[in-house]
Amino acid sequence: MTRKKYALITGSAGGIGKALRDKYLENDYLVIGLDYQEQVDGENFFPVQVDLAKLVRDKAYLNSILHQIKKISNTQGISVLINNAAIQIVKPFDELEFDDWSLSFDVNLHAPFIFAKSFATELGLNNGSIVNISSIHSKLTKKNFLAYSTTKAALSALTRNLAIELGGAVRVNAIEPAAISTEMLKDGFKGKEDLFSELESYHPLGRIGTPDEVADLALFLSSEKANFLHGSCVSINGGIASCLSDPD
Fold first, then answer.
1. Residue 188: is its pLDDT beyond 90?
2. Closest-CA residue to 218 (of 6, 16, 13, 46)
């Protein structure tokens, strides 16, 4: 009997994170879910509560989290690493503090680097894969997203560079979603349903994406069906990245 593989997913309690968790569970993975929020154990789901900013800055705390993960996966190790957790601080440049900037880089970029570094060997032994959840903001952005867009551009660059550094040992790819219909996004449009409809209309498809569509793509990128995809940053944006928003 073939042993089930382990997938390590960060930010597993959020909208996209839950979809990722459920998608990998449905496809016979054992899932280790890392999140700042407390989560409930489930069949084949092993939650670990973690503060990613602290993990980046505190070596002893990092080692304790890595120990918990390795204890769960035992000698088998993980086969898929999905760096999904992110923080989005939306502020104009003159209000953006260095602490905001530093926190954004710790969670959105430094933590993915640390996890890639920490699990590269076992991912290689398991013919594994890394999927980084980047953003359309890595290339196209707007005012007040300076910290977020810069970290996502760096995450996409990290993806391309890791593909070179790791060579054929571990495949590394990224997903760059546009607007995705998470509860967090919908909450931001409560009482402003006309603006939500306008956002949808900006997409040539006439709608925004779903967390499940992102999870489907992640599953494909980490599968043997995508064996020649390496160092790729795949856009999933409903066509909005091809569309100029002119006033006329």
1. no
2. 16
Catalytic residue among 6, 24, 29, 148: 148
121-123-126-131 Cα dihedral, nearest 10 degrees: -160
* Half-sphere exposure in the Cβ direction for 10 (13 Å, CA): 29
Question: Residue length, the chain?
Answer: 248
User: Structure pTM?
Assistant: 0.95
Band the pLDDT of 1: cuts 50, 70, 90. Answer: low
Place of tokens 């793509």: 217
* Rounded-to-integer distance, Cα 226 and Cα 236, Å: 16
Q: How many CA atoms lie within 13 A of 155 on its CB side?
A: 38
CA distance 58 to 55: 5
- Residues 85-106 pLDDT 10s: 999 999 999 999 999 999 999 9
Biggest alpha carbon distance in the chain? 62
Q: Is 36 a catalytic residue?
A: no
Give the pair of three-digit tokens for residue 8: 């390590």
CA–CA gap between residue 193 and residue 186 (Å, rounded): 9
> Residue 26 and residue 19: Cα distance in Å, rounded?
10
> What are 127's two structure tokens?
């013919």
For 196, the token pair is 């939500």
Q: Starting at the edge strand that comes first in sequence, how are the strands of the sheet with 6-10 ordered?
A: 45-49, 30-35, 6-10, 80-83, 129-133, 171-177, 233-236
pLDDT the model gives residue 2: 74
H, E, C per residue of 199-213: HHHHCCCCCCECHHH
CA distance 206 to 204: 5
* pLDDT tens-digit map of 136-149: 999 999 999 999 99
